Predict the structure.
Amino acid sequence: MRRLIVTGLMAALALSALPLAADAKATGHPDIPAAVFTDPPADKAHPARMEVLHIPSGGVEINGVAYLASGAGVHPTVVLLHGLPGNEKNLDLAQAIRRAGWNCVTFNYRGSWGSPGTYSFRGNLADTKAVLAYVRDPANAAKFGIDTRKLVLAGHSMGGGVTAVTAGGDPGLAGAVMISSADLGFLAHAPLATRLQTARENMETLAGVTPESLAAELGTLGDASFAAAAPGLAKMPLLILTSDDGLAPMSDALAANLRKRGDTQLTTIHEATDHSWSGKRIALEAAVIRWLQGLK
């Protein structure tokens, strides 16, 4: 009986798998990469794996996770940043990136989600630089199979703002991805009441701060703007993804700025979904992976 049940399940699974590619095309995205819905061939000698990271930054070691792709040798790598406070960490995107043959490194900023230290926006910027230094370290690059010549920074929401500022000052990156990003420099000029409301609504897990202290610090970030990052961003491949969350005009203004500078490496995509891309996860994964696969 057990054999019959197993055989029946295997047959059902085989039949259900047959229209998978067709179903993907039916979503309205006929060019969905296979990595979105298909596991790569098994490599017993060099299997996909996950490594826990402890990354030095600001006198502490912040928590990170590396999703490492299968296959021998080094792999191109994405460093993926979450937002404020980071309830949506986009780990399904990290897994899809790994299925596409890229490593993906995620981490939690100081003072967030169990990482030691005190949370701050300036700390987020410093932590991101520390993570890039960590994966570029020759010993770590060798240990985790990271191709440091093909390193991409990607971020969502506030993490997209950190991505813009960091990538704009880091010509060694192969490119950057900004997902429903917040322009920290623009928010710095928002009224105090708006900054306070933003802080009060995003305090989960944050250590050593209050809404009042976060709002005050946010008011000092005028230099961490999309406009300030634009000269550097115009020199690298950049994918800007926007949604119907009210933040799209910030990214649209950056895109217009880059095009005025003659940027020919910019890709922009808008989807009718919320800030967390709740109804467009497949579209998000497909867009990012297509763009990564197009990098030279």
Remarks:
- Residues 2-17 form the longest helix (16 residues).
- The chain has one domain: 47-294.
- The domain at 47-294 is CATH 3.40.50.1820 (Rossmann fold).
